[in-house]
Amino acid sequence: MKQLLVFIRKEFYHVFRDRRTLLIMFGIPVAQILLFGFALTSEVKNAKIIISDNAKDANAQQIIHKIKASSYFLAEEATVNYTDIEKVFRKGELKCAVIFPPHFGNDLLRSGKAQIQIIADGSDPNTAKTLINYLTAIIADYQHQISPAAALPYSIVPETRLLYNENANGSLNFVPGVLALVLMIVCTALTSVAVVREKELGTMEILLVSPFKPVMVLIAKAIPFLALSIANFTLILLLSVYVLDVPVKGSLSLLYIESILFIITCLSFGLLISNTTNSQQTALLLSMMGLMMPTLIFTGFMFPLENMPWIFQAISNIIPSRWYFLIVKAVMLKGLGFEYVWKETLVLVAMTVLLLIIALKNFKKRLA
Amino acid sequence: MEEKVIICKELTKKFGDFIAVDKISFEVNKGEIFGFLGANGAGKTTAMRMLCGLSFPSSGEASVAGFNVYRQQQYIKRNIGYMSQKFSLYEDLTILENIRFFGGVYGVPAKEIKRRSNSLVEKLGLQSEAKKKVGDLPLGWKQKLAFSVAIFHQPKIVFLDEPTGGVDPVTRRQFWDMIYEAAASGITIFVTTHYMDEAEYCNRITVMVDGKIEALDTPQNLKKQFAVKSIDDVFYQLARGAKRSAD
What we know:
The structure holds two protein chains of two kinds.
Chain A: H1 2-17, H2 19-39, E1 47-53, H3 58-69, E2 73-77, H4 85-90, E3 96-100, H5 104-110, E4 117-120, H6 125-146, H7 174-201, H8 203-209, H9 214-242, H10 252-276, H11 280-298, H12 310-316, H13 320-333, H14 342-367
Parallel strand pairs in A: 1-2, 1-3
Antiparallel strand pairs in A: 3-4
Helix pairs in contact in A: 1-9, 2-7, 2-9, 3-6, 7-9, 7-10, 7-11, 7-13, 9-10, 10-13, 10-14, 13-14
Chain B: E1 4-15, E2 18-29, E3 33-38, H1 44-51, E4 59-64, E5 67-68, H2 73-79, E6 80-83, H3 95-105, H4 110-124, H5 139-150, E7 157-161, H6 169-184, E8 188-192, H7 196-199, E9 204-209, E10 212-217, H8 219-226, H9 231-239
Parallel strand pairs in B: 3-8, 3-9, 6-7, 7-8
Antiparallel strand pairs in B: 1-2, 1-4, 4-5, 9-10
Helix pairs in contact in B: 3-4, 5-6, 8-9
């Protein structure tokens, strides 16, 4: 036991003296949280649009006021005819154009039917769709205003709610995703590199000749990274609560327990990688490249898993971060208890046990 | 009768069809400097790994420090020290941290570690460097330090696998002075080497060729037996007949 403590202290020396490791460990999560939280927002704000009012009547003006009042748009009024519109779009900065035909108000009041043309830059389909949705909503709202509900025999008003995220905070989905991604990559990569480094330096041999049990070498290697990963997890959690306004709705202790479980899964995976390679570069490459892409794609926080072909959905089942992502979403965002995540937890436990058994078996085989 | 600390009887290691070590038998006395010579691929390292408890023999018997290599590897490990050709201290740890770590792993009590490391640093004249990282020391110093760490827990036997590779002649000489000193204090030295002049420093040497021991005696007797002037010539005569190419 005392030997283990001596060993763990040594591991901490290694970690704290290696600036590169520390930077990876704590730099990546901070950068990712800030990037995902602020840069990768799918909301559209202050989009440049142009409004061409060829009607110049009261109705058109009222709609234009409404559009201008919205924070989604930076609206500019200009008279553009149909042929020139493409030229304006080609310059690039314009996202959308709203064109009122002549006699807009007349048509509306006389025939009860008027048209507005909305042209959006389809080369960016997501933004285009969002803008069109906003504009349609504004127009529908206006329509409702000028023909009071009483005039219509029936009226259906959809009441929409974004459950668990009433303010439509875009960071919400990213936090569990970043947690899964960062822990997966940091734990796995750093652990595998730490073990392989001993092999590369020749110190592993010295350790194996010592009375220190080989399996204890692995444990001693893993414990500092377990501690650092928990610190890392806390850091991400603090950032998300205080910087991104994503609160922890469920039980904090449950979240910690599940995260520690996931960290152990990742550590086991790192140990397994370290057994199969002898150079730090290979280990880093394997864990970074081999994990980064699958984790990004198959965790489900960037691309919805439900839309993937069944084969990819099947593959996603073997990615540990996928299950952790579900757990964090349930506990952190929805505030659900253990009774809702026990299945996912069980999957993670099974994965951990399997990985650990393979890693330890491999490690022993190499010694014989 | 002298105390035997290593006893090997027909020790063999096979990897599939390949016989890396072929029925070697020898005994090493307490406090002896025992040289283990052989070309690359002759089976030195494999033999040494079996004796250190790093791998199991395929057949034959061996005991190290009185413990069986099949069943008592854990006890063997407690009683030996090991230093390999690759420099094997932690470069990002200071001298004292390295000593404390390896002392701790071998179960030396903390008080004892403190006392011994102070006297060791003093003996090596490294007082001003004690808190510097090992990576900043010249290679010769590193090797001397690595040897000191290998015998820090006062093992019965220390295995040295080509310990002086890449070290300048002056430092090699100093290194051998340390080996003599350790041997005088009762530690048995088991050393493999490529340098034939170093072989002359050993009490007894064996020459391994193709997994077998082809010669085992004092350097003087071997030179007499082969009627040559140096161990270099003895080695050349024996190794010439090797069928295995160096790996």
